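User: Run a structure prediction on this.
Assistant: Running it now.
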Amino acid sequence: MTEILPILRKLKIKDNSYARLDEIFDTLNFLAKMRVTNVSWIRENLSDAQDRFFKEVILNIRKIESPEPTADLMESASFMGLGTNWSIAVCALQLQEVGVILVAEKLKIDLDKANVERILRTKIQSKDFSFNHQYEALRAEIKRLFNVDMPFLTTQFRKMRVKVLHEGYNPEPEEKDALVSFTIGLLKKLQDICNKV
């Protein structure tokens, strides 16, 4: 019982409420040994109450001891000047990449370096191989297979991608909004392609 008392105090549960529950069970166990009528029914119902009590205690302990790990994530990164615009932009940019890779898999288009070079008919230095190449290869294959034009990644957009993902650039609200709008449009196009398969 001593181990749970500090936890009960954290939860603002009076120590004696636990002690009383313990005493009740001791009394019921004694009465059951004496074969007093209906004690087993009372004990069973109180046992359910005790289970609920301890489940509630455990849930509250978990809330106190280990809060959701993502709760303070951006607050922890704020000293670097990274804010909400950055986190939303990163999410949008990563959604683009994951969307391209998953749709390519569904379409059975291999986006490894050798296949991307074959599709784009160009030699790419290993150090330069990037998402941009994979996207252009998927774009070319979608055009060839479905005669659908995918959005074009402008030079400015590519530079923004590198700045946000790799240099920690905190985009202005209008830059973030442009990235989100582009991502939504791209994902809709990818979804349309998936629906054709």
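The chain is about 70% helix and 0% strand.
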